[in-house]
Design a protein that fits this description.
The complex is a heterodimer of chains A (501) and B (152). Chain A has one domain. In chain A, helix 4 runs antiparallel to helix 12 and helix 6 runs antiparallel to helix 15. Helices cover 75% and strands 1% of the residues of chain A. Chain A is mainly alpha-helical and 501 residues long. The radius of gyration of chain A is 22 Å and the shape is globular. With 152 residues, chain B is mainly α. Chain B has 2 domains: 54 residues; 68 residues, no CATH class. Chain B contains 5 helices and no strands. Chain B starts with 6 loop residues before the first helix and ends in a 10-residue tail after the last helix. In chain B, 32% of the residues are buried. The chains are: A mainly alpha (501), B mainly alpha (152). At the A-B interface, helix 8, helix 9, helix 16, helix 17 and helix 18 of A face helix 1, helix 2, helix 3, helix 4 and helix 5 of B.
């Protein structure tokens, strides 16, 4: 099937006034949702369903795709400016984005993130157009054993690369994995680790943990660590310049393209944007000549994560559109919307419903263009947040985070939990632990447990299934290699330090 | 092997050790299911609790290198900044249903501003009230989150 006439036809449909307005509205709403902690894109897409009844299928889908893409763009803003990632996929952006803001380079970070998001988002749509069906078949090769191994690989990378101490990194990771065990066991229906609290039967929402350890944890850290210091040093971070210089553009270019590729590929898999942003961060750290800068304000790490984050949207749409398999909450709701309009996602849909599908794909291009046009000038406005004196800004973040937690389920229990996780985040930082490893453990832990249990149920040979599947074995070997290399590097570093000392 | 001396290096591992024990006991109480699932609801958290206990002991015995995370954190700072802020935030959660969002939030913000050294109460009030109203408008009016502006 020739793609060019189909996509041209898609553009001619997507560029009509009602569809453009729907795309603009979706992008705007998605950006707002991405900025605000607590309300995720899946909730917003779900809230759009009643509105979409009055629209034709193409316009409704265009609006929802706008929300989906916009949320990915917006998540970077609060991650960089106030260290509050609105979504799990923005956690890695905060790791280097917030230190950059504290160095007065928040504007530069935001501009590069927007450009990285644009390139990542656009490249992923090109990928969606060109290689959707073959890649979807490749994704089908990933069964429970492969999914477990790839997530295990990602988590061990988290523990080894992000943390200064592997022991503390793995400990933080296990804390996250235990937190995912709280709630009803999906296979037996038994409540685990709920301590008799009925609200915990649903488990702890990832976003509550993220807002707590990052947002509230940062506020507590600031308030305690600045005690007794001179007032003049605490006034404000300062917006600084927001146009990147030539070196910064060059530094960001490679990571943007590498991050886009990683994000697109991981978007195909169950772990999606979180895994993509994390793996691309890890690759950049490995490739960098200055890995010690990562976590302290490395532009490369931050833009790679953000590009991967946005590139995963196109990747995640491939299994949805070509196989009817959703890999995230948002794509699951999009699947519901597609079926609501009488469409049957699967390989045949790309043929039977070609005009509609190509209109939606064209609208994704348009959404990316709208988002960069809308968000780049907004950097100058958002960055003004950093001009607010910190003694005012930090308590405002506290309120913002609390209301964000409340808005997830409308429950005060979540506000109490977010406060508890804020205290935990403070103590983790005080004790030299990295909360990022814990959060990644929490985001991927649930799926990892289910994959492991499914793999073992399917196996006639117990855990050996993980070693007999080639893709699974490859990831496990890669994990072992990374741990070995990391241990050797650390040992060398310690010997060098001792000899210098 | 060095024994860690700093409170920041022993407190969290100790808490984690207790947490591992609690996880173990809590999972022990789960009824045994007749599922054919090789890794039942017990095995995964048990394995994790076991690993957490081992890692906590390793951390307590000084296996991990020292870190600089506690730079600038003093007991006075914990007592005069950390505890009051946690207390204010806890009170805020309980005050929300009683006082409504606008009054509770304004009070929390003013208390925090005072804690961080803002002495001009009129400025604190203006900023706190303005932020409360703006947050309410964004979350409740624009996004439809169920927040009570005033006591019900």
């Amino acid at each position: 099937m020739d793609t060019l006439p189909l996509i041209m036809n898609g553009f001619s449909q997507a560029l009509t006034v009602p569809n453009l307005l729907a795309a603009f509205f979706g992008c705007f709403l998605g950006t707002v949702v991405g900025v605000l902690p607590g309300i995720g894109p899946s909730t917003t897409v779900a809230l759009m369903i009643p509105i979409s009844f009055a629209m034709n299928p193409a316009t409704a889908l265009i609006m929802m795709m706008g929300v989906y893409c916009g949320a990915m763009y917006g998540g970077a803003i609060t991650s960089i400016l106030i260290n509050v990632p609105g979504e799990a996929s923005s956690v890695m952006t905060a790791v280097d984005g917030y230190p950059l803001a504290k160095q007065g380079r928040g504007g530069v970070a935001m501009v590069l993130c927007q450009v990285g998001s644009f390139i990542g988002g656009t490249l992923s749509i090109v990928g969606l157009m060109l290689v959707a069906l073959p890649l979807a078949n490749f994704a089908l090769e990933f069964g429970p054993a492969e999914n477990f191994s790839v997530m295990f690989f990602a988590l061990i990378l988290a523990a080894t690369l992000i943390s200064e101490s592997m022991l503390r990194g793995i400990t933080a990771l296990i804390m996250g994995l235990i937190l995912t065990s709280i709630g009803t066991d999906l296979q037996t229906g038994l409540g685990r680790l709920t301590m008799g609290v009925p609200e915990l039967l649903d488990g702890i929402d990832n976003v509550v943990v993220i807002i707590g350890v990052f947002g509230i944890g940062e506020v507590l850290w600031y308030v305690v660590s600045t005690y007794g210091k001179e007032e003049t040093t605490l006034e404000r971070i300062g917006a600084g310049r927001w146009i990147p210089n030539r070196e910064e553009w060059w530094a960001g270019l490679g990571p943007i393209f590498r991050g886009s590729l990683t994000g697109f590929m991981t978007g195909l898999l169950a772990a999606g944007s979180v895994l993509g942003s994390f793996l691309s961060y890890s690759f950049e750290k490995r490739l960098s000549k200055h890995p010690e800068k990562f976590g302290k304000g490395a532009l490369e790490g931050m833009v790679a994560c953000e590009s991967a984050n946005n590139a995963s949207t196109g990747g995640a749409l491939i299994p949805l559109l070509t196989l009817g398999i959703p890999h995230s909450g948002t794509t699951a709701i999009l699947l519901t919307v597609l079926t609501m309009y009488g469409l049957k996602p699967g390989p045949q849909m790309m043929i039977d419903q070609a005009p509609l599908m190509w209109t939606v794909i064209a609208s994704l291009y348009i959404a990316n263009v709208i988002l960069i046009i809308m968000n780049l000038p907004a950097v100058g406005i958002f960055i003004k947040i950093l001009d607010i004196p910190l003694k005012f800004l930090m308590p405002i973040i506290l309120v913002f985070a609390s209301v964000g937690a409340f808005s997830i389920n409308g429950s005060l229990t979540d506000v109490i939990l977010v406060l508890l996780f804020g205290v935990l985040g403070f103590f983790m930082r005080w004790s030299g632990f990295t909360p990022v490893a814990m959060v990644l453990g929490m985001v991927l832990g649930d799926r990892m447990e289910q994959s492991l249990r499914q793999a073992l149920m399917l196996s006639s040979n117990g855990p050996m299934i993980l070693l007999t599947k080639p893709i699974s074995l490859a990831f496990l070997l890669l994990t072992a290699a990374i741990v070995a290399v990391d241990l050797m590097t650390r040992k060398k570093g310690r010997i060098a330090d001792d000899s210098e000392g | 092997m060095k024994r860690p001396k700093k409170l920041s290096e022993t407190l969290l591992p100790l808490i984690l050790l207790v947490m591992a024990g609690l996880v173990f006991i809590s999972i022990w109480r789960l009824p045994v299911t007749s599922t054919a699932d090789l890794v039942g609801p017990r095995m995964y958290p048990w394995t994790l609790a076991g690993l957490l206990a081992i890692l906590s002991v390793l951390l307590l015995t000084g296996f991990a290198p020292s870190h600089g995370g506690d730079v600038g954190i003093t007991v006075a700072a914990l007592l005069r900044r950390f505890l009051p802020l946690v207390l204010f935030s806890t009170l805020y959660v309980f005050a929300l249903p009683l006082l409504g969002f606008l009054i509770a939030t304004t009070a929390l913000l003013m208390a925090c501003f005072y804690l961080l050294g803002e002495q001009k109460h009129w400025l604190s009030f203006l900023v706190a009230a303005g932020c409360s109203v703006a947050t309410y408008l964004i979350f409740a009016t624009l996004l439809g989150i169920q927040l009570n502006a005033f006591p019900v």
